[in-house]
Amino acid sequence: MAPATLSAIAAPLRAYGAVVLEGYEEPHAEVMALVWGPRFDREHALRLLERRPGYVPQVLHEVQKAADLFDRLADAERDRLRSLIQRHRSLLLGGDNRPATH
């Protein structure tokens, strides 16, 4: 997967993820739910965004672009993206499901 593609898919998450996923016990699980299947789960994305209605107009177009990019990825690239999400979670949790101490 080209770095530009990964960056484009992650852009809405980087820009709005902290706000949209605030309050979820397992935000990485919510992100994985979006990319777990062969197609980006747009319905789940809309449910996440509906919790923060002020952000929907700002984010919806970016999420749609990311979803379209994800849907065009080869299976191996989708698997790599999922692995990166799991790796990020592991790094944040210190590798053993406990919050990392900095």
What labels describe this entry?
102 residues, mainly alpha, 5 helices, globular
Description:
The structure is a single chain. With 102 residues, the protein is mainly α. It contains 5 helices and no strands.
Using the alpha-carbon principal axes, give the shape: globular
Low-confidence stretches: none
Residue fraction in strands: under 5%
Q: What's the count of strands?
A: 0
User: What class would the helix/strand composition place it in?
Assistant: mainly alpha
Q: Helix count, per DSSP? A: 5
Summarize the structure.
The chain is mostly helical and 102 residues long. Helix content is 70%, strand content 0%. The chain is globular, with a radius of gyration of 14 Å.
Please outline the helices and strands.
Layout: H1 3-20, H2 27-35, H3 42-50, H4 56-72, H5 75-92
Helix pairs in contact: 1-4, 2-5, 3-4
